[in-house]
Amino acid sequence: MKKITFALTALALFALASCSQTQNPETASAAETHLEEAGVPSGGQSAVADDESQKNVVQTAVGSPDHTTLVTAVKTAGLVDVLSNAGPFTVFAPTNAAFDKLPAGTVEALLKEEKRGDLKNILQYHVYVGSLRTESFEDGQSLGQVNGGRVTMGVKDGKVTVNGATILASIPTSNGVIHVIDQVLLPK
């Protein structure tokens, strides 16, 4: 029994020591190259190739010609891997036309390095953790968004809105649902 305990302790210490070591960038690069050559994708969840399953929120947005500005913003903010994970997420996805309604130069400014924090905050204001279908919304319902802000749902005469932006369509995905909206939601 002492041998097993010693062996398990030694193995645990070895694993802990391996995890805490900083990896040499040259070694990391060589390891990544080796994995890629072996057919193992590097990167996060977004790097997983799967042509058979239902698309996730990012893959769905990438395939939409009406969401190229949103996709560029998500990539710039470094949120691709996060939104490619299991979720579930409810994403309120502004169309290109919605971004065009913003004052001239706003999108370009947000895509600059010094505004990445603001861009990330705005994009996270469009995401709710959980999968909410249109029929589950109630008039006046308040939702806590990923950035810590809140949005208010409106339901009237069959029309559903979020902070006044109209939901134009809803698209189920493998990790949640996308609600296409006609305005960009701006946190207060």
From TrEMBL:
Xref: Gene3D superfamilies: FAS1 domain (2.30.180.10)
Keyword Signal: yes
Signal peptide: 1-22
SUPFAM superfamilies found in the cross-reference section: FAS1 domain
Alphabetized UniProt keyword annotations: Signal
Keyword Signal: yes
Pfam families: Fasciclin
All copies of domain FAS1, residue ranges: 54-185
Source domain of life: Bacteria
InterPro entries recorded: Adhesion/Biosynth-related (IPR050904), FAS1_dom_sf (IPR036378), FAS1_domain (IPR000782)
PANTHER family: FI19380P1 (PTHR10900:SF77), PERIOSTIN-RELATED (PTHR10900)
Protein name: Fasciclin domain-containing protein
